[in-house]
């Protein structure tokens, strides 16, 4: 693959913040990847940018991109991406680090270009099984319907303490599932009398966790959906205590686990992400032990797509599912290692957007290509719909 041009630029994400986009021009065409940005980030994620900020990252990236122009990279399979990683690492040791958002964009745009160079769809290029004649299974969407926590501004001083109230269809096709979620989302708006959306397009409300769950239960029943939660517990945890504001209450570790278990039972919750703070492996273990296999106990801030932490969580029986966010670790080669480990250990994978998203659908290809069982995004909003539509297109092309 001959690099004719490699052009970095700033684009705005859905929150209006600047993020990095890279355009690669080869003889096969032009390819673009832009990095998403998190707000409720895990403590163990790699830094998103250089320690001096995004402008410093961009300065370095401009130099790096210029150096790579007119060079040739032989990338026949995902492993060959290591050739690019080597060049990145060498540059970083001499000139300073880019940050995970930037390395994510570099590796992804090279893979995208390489897929075309090999006459393959992106998802197909990174999928090992399709090369053995197997059709990939489409994921199911996990859709953020109602929001609270860090992603939502308060209404009259209030918001739910949990970050995300999710709807999870179980349908034959992804297209049908995404459509059902959209209808259910509109119905939820009616019941909530919601008037505005949060960072991820989920409905804002001043209701408590339980009041929202009551609404969600009605919605889920009508549309035959499963209920999920991203509690994002670390965002309201401090020195041993979970500080609830709506209603005002402090819970210690034991109370927190009890509370989450009670909610799981009462609302038949299928999916619980980050129910305990991000370093409490034993707390997750306790949850998993209680729900056994009935509910997905999902690590996000706990695992941060980092193989070391994923190993610890899986070997310690703390999770049966995990969030995969490529920019948490900043390297697709490492994402691939995490994916292989999950497959081997039968850990359910949920490929996830970030709260600050761009008009980029690469995540959909990663999800299908790496065999994720779920794709977590907002249900509405152009940055979310573009990813859902990409899975629909892949699904259609395989029919
Ligand atoms: C999460 C994500 C996405 P953020 O906590 O799962 O919903 O949030 O991108 O802000 O880390
Ligand atoms: Mg999360």
Write up what this structure looks like:
- It is globular and about 60 Å long.
- By secondary structure, it is an alpha/beta fold.
- It has two domains: about 5-120, 2-Layer Sandwich (Enolase-like, domain 1); about 140-399, TIM Barrel.
- The two termini are about 30 Å apart.
- Helix 5 (about 175-190) crosses helix 6 (about 210-225), helix 7 (about 255-265) packs parallel to helix 8 (about 280-290) and helix 12 (about 360-370) crosses helix 13 (about 380-395).
- The strands form three sheets. It has an eight-stranded mixed β-barrel, surrounded by seven helices. A three-stranded antiparallel β-sheet has the order 1-2-3, covered by helices on one side.
- Helix 8 (about 280-290) links the parallel strand 10 (about 270-275) and strand 11 (about 295-300).
- It has 13 helices and 14 strands.
- Bound molecules: 2-phosphoglyceric acid and magnesium ion.
- 2-phosphoglyceric acid binds near residues 164, 200, 232, 300 and 352.
Helix-strand layout with pairing:
Elements: E1 5-12, E2 18-26, E3 29-34, H1 54-68, H2 82-95, H3 100-117, H4 122-125, E4 140-147, E5 164-168, H5 174-192, H6 209-223, E6 226-230, E7 237-238, E8 241-245, E9 248-251, H7 253-267, E10 269-273, H8 281-291, E11 296-299, H9 307-315, E12 321-324, H10 326-329, H11 332-344, E13 348-352, H12 362-369, E14 374-378, H13 382-397
Helix pairs in contact: 5-6, 7-8, 12-13
Bound molecules: 2-phosphoglyceric acid (2PG) and magnesium ion (MG).
